């Protein structure tokens, strides 16, 4: 009966601990998602700063796994490099040790008041921000409440002969102790839970420091295996980040194993408290790993590129670069990744639009085939981005996040429509003109190149407005589109005037000419829709247009 009660209480305590960590991590990611991305992008260029940032983020999230997931996404999106990521991972490992220090300080005793405070804030707060702060406090409290329940459960087991025999067996077999801790950590996907149990065993004098150290090593390796498993089937960058985490841990353990006995004796002689002995050993291990590997990050990154080489795409099919569903728990980051994918699409649209006048002037089957391939690529990227944003809309979003996601869906669809207009209208007319062996008049060519240049200018302004989130450029795009509407009317009148004069070339190409001019107008309307979505839904910001459109070299000269 004692064992049944103990097992049930341990399962309940573990459940509270894991749920508390999940609440804490999710709440903080939602509060600081955008700022976190900006910090990781701008502050990770220097190794020591990146190390400190990794430590800070993991202290806040209480989960190196959450930090690693964000790093994987930003690395896959090429926002930060693998070398920058490695320093943050080392910092994240140090950050996980703070939980152990808090357990040693017996923070578990204030867990219930913290849960109560968090509940009051959650129920009575009016804004999403304060509700999430309440969620963070509830998560923090539940984490330590779970540990308290497990500690209270273990206390009666001190006098149980069977439990003592199990622990004695673990203490006498370092490999078994390490393996059991690694497997348990892998199964619960939380090193904090395992280390919490190890500390509780040590604090109640159920195990000595030496077997506790081997269990600590197992917990450190087990948490790295979780990251490796989650990276399977994902991008090569994701796999390199997860492999780096595992290699850091395994190499550290192999370096430390010969010195476990002397280390245990030194720490035991210096620190009287069993809890602080385990906590300080855990901290020392991770700080030592960071100190050893930080100077060799560049060499380590090259090794990872050899261990996990790039995949060769046999089919040559285009794939999204930035979409990562693991970021759905952090909507701000997920929206940022979707926006980057739309920038990727906008580049393809520009590549597709630029050569279309050349096809109207002199038809080239190879160039036409390239334009068709671009349109197919755009369809693949648009469908993937649209599905990604649709799934994101099913998550718990604030009103602002929902509006941004909807705005991005409208924008990506308009980019798709532009590709369709180019392929189904302009390219089709270019093929018809070539098949019928007809050509525009000199004035007709002049009209079309004028319209083409205006639409390409508008496309450039809209793409830049989206990339820089600039309201000023979005408003400029709206104004340019109005000019294109006026231009289309004038060009149509000019064409009718040429028809009235009886120009033969004009008569032969009249339907092609008018359809092409109208197709350019439709492209401009879709670009206006994108500009309107930027100002009305995506919440653009006001920048200095001159700085946005000026090359960086010229900006430096002005300064």
From the structure above, extract its key features.
559 residues
Please describe what this structure looks like.
The radius of gyration is 31 Å and the shape is elongated. Helix content is 82%, strand content 0%. Helix 11 packs across helix 13, helix 20 (442-468) runs antiparallel to helix 21 and helix 21 (471-501) runs antiparallel to helix 23. The longest helix has 42 residues, at 2-43. The model is unreliable at 545-559 (pLDDT under 50). With 559 residues, it is mainly α.
Q: What is the tally of beta strands?
A: 0
Sheet/helix structural class = mainly alpha
Fraction in helix:
over 70%
- Unreliable stretches (pLDDT < 50, length at least 5) are 545-559
- Mean pLDDT metric: 81
Cα separation of the termini: 78 Å
Radius of gyration: 31 Å
> What is the element string, with H for helices and E for strands?
HHHHHHHHHHHHHHHHHHHHHHHHH
Continuous helix count? 25
Give the overall silhouette: elongated
How does the SSE layout of this entry go?
Blueprint: H1 2-43, H2 47-61, H3 64-76, H4 82-95, H5 97-104, H6 111-124, H7 128-154, H8 161-172, H9 174-188, H10 191-203, H11 209-231, H12 236-256, H13 260-270, H14 274-293, H15 297-307, H16 331-353, H17 356-361, H18 365-393, H19 399-435, H20 442-468, H21 471-501, H22 504-508, H23 510-536, H24 545-549, H25 552-558
Helix pairs in contact: 1-2, 1-3, 1-7, 1-16, 2-4, 3-4, 3-12, 4-12, 4-14, 4-15, 5-10, 5-14, 6-7, 7-10, 9-11, 10-11, 10-14, 11-12, 11-13, 11-14, 12-14, 16-18, 16-19, 16-20, 18-19, 19-23, 20-21, 20-23, 21-23
